[in-house]
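hey so i finally got around to running the thing on that chain from the lab meeting. sorry it took forever, my laptop kept dying and i had to restart like 3 times. anyway pasting the input first so we r on the same page abt which one it is
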Amino acid sequence: MKGNCKMLALYLAYLDDEKDKELFSNIYYSYRKQMVSVAFSIVNNQTDAEDVVEDVFLRIAQKYFDIIRSINNETDLRNYLLKAAKNTAINKSKSKKKENTSLDTIIEYNMNDIEELSDDTFIETLCNKIDYDQIVEAIKNLSEKYRDVLYYHFVMELTVPQTAKLLDQTTSTTKKQLVRGKKMLLSLLETKGVKDNANK
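ok and heres what got predicted. didnt touch it at all, straight out
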């Protein structure tokens, strides 16, 4: 428990507003154990699972608390946190097995077969190759129309009909935006990958 308190104090140091600190603390104590459980089911190691969750909370405190603050629904918040833990755990597990994996194969395959690739397979495959933070950051950098539909569907894990309702548009329009949005996301990640490799 003392270790947890020390980590929480570190995260809170990144936040200035007292209400934000209170919200972060409540979330940390409410969802940490569930997140560790999800991470453990993937990495099969308690220490690694705890490291995964601490990494998630650190990134939230440093970069993504605006997202947390914007989520009003408890179910959506839980889904967001568990999804972040799951994808970070997948990334950690894969990085142990294979370092510096190239994006060329996944980019080429998905760009050619994007409409046939299921949403679950699409996002899971991305998470196997790319850090979850990079995916979320790339989605946030898309134009508003595609950013919102990808964020609600993949990050918040809303269904296509739920996403369509939230965006006040038809299911058909939402499906088309998802297909185009996935292509744009892959292109953006591919470009970033090229830049990152050039800087190594």
